[in-house]
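Recall the central idea of this unit: under ordinary conditions, the amino acid sequence of a chain determines the structure it adopts. In this exercise we apply that idea directly, starting from the sequence alone.
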Amino acid sequence: MNKDKLIADEKDRLVSADKEVVEKSAAEAKIVKDDADADLAQALPILENAKKIVDSLDKNAIVELKALNNPPAAVEMVMACVLTMLGTKDVKWDNIRNEIKDPAQFIKRV
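Accordingly, the structure predicted from this sequence is:
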């Protein structure tokens, strides 16, 4: 009987140690989740606004961009950023113009 109690006590000690580890991990995971939820709450309105802006893109505006031989630096930078987000590696202006050669297709990609 004494041997069974020692075994049971040892198992209880191991279970208690595991429980502490699991509880600590759960608390850490909750902190990460809460932080991610807060970031998501900030990002969602920005995403919705971006969707509205993309939906308002006009084919004529893209045609106008494509016609620029030497665009203002800000325009080139914005277009380079957009194409980078779309996975384009070469974001020199000549390549940007090539990427937007079909404005309707470009708008769909965005």
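The first helix runs from residue 2 to 55.
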